[in-house]
Amino acid sequence: MLVPSRRRLRIEMWIVLGLSLGQSAVYSVVQLLDKMTRAPLAEGTSTLNRSQSSREYFDLTYQLLDIIFALVPVVLVIYFLTEHRPSGHGVTAFQRLGLNFDRPGKDLLQGFGLAALIGIPSLGLYAAGRALGITTAIIPSALDAYWWTVPVLVLSAIRHGIVEEVIVVGYLLDRLGKLGWAMPAAIFASAMLRGSYHLYQGFGPFIGNAIMGVIFAVVYTKTRRLMPLVIAHAVLDIVAFVGFSLFGKAIGLG
Length: 254
Known about the structure:
Elements: H1 6-19, H2 21-36, E1 45-47, H3 56-70, H4 72-81, H5 93-97, H6 104-132, E2 137-139, H7 149-178, H8 183-196, H9 203-223, H10 227-248
Parallel strand pairs: 1-2
Helix pairs in contact: 1-2, 1-7, 2-8, 3-7, 4-7, 6-9, 6-10, 7-8, 7-9, 7-10, 8-9
């Protein structure tokens, strides 16, 4: 198998990040500056799932298109990480990343355990951030109530889990390692990237997601499996998105 040069790896990384979460990080910084120069952060809001049309089935179409096209950089990463050999018997990226169903029971158990480990302290961090005025009010869902709202929110949560864990953990740690980065430095870079594309929500979510990034990256380096991370991330987002959509307004959160 032909080993790509460091220069090629750097270019590849910039392309992948420029098409995905690196782009999100740049927009997030600009959005944070916009909010901070308008009013105190505590008075700002961050809406995660917005309606994109007042017409039900056009809104559904837009939501599904967003989910599908957000996964295209993941497909690109899978292609880059798959070992292509003349014999045709290369190692797939799904095997390299542990993004498969080889051990469903253990992955589910670890995923739900990680979700509990991250989710419960995150509520306290959010409350602290709001009290300190460094976090905006976060609205997990502003979709209208249609028959497809909950399924779309579940798909959106799964999308976030796949995109973020594949690119920020699996791909980035692999490429930084091949570029000669020490693992602690690679984990730090991964965590900072994860925190940075949440900056539009304020400094509290930046800190919380950076800590989550360190934990997830460390777990991955020990297990070499992304599936538990994807499950944990999806569970956290499903609880936030669907829970808010069903109960948020009823309990005065929206």
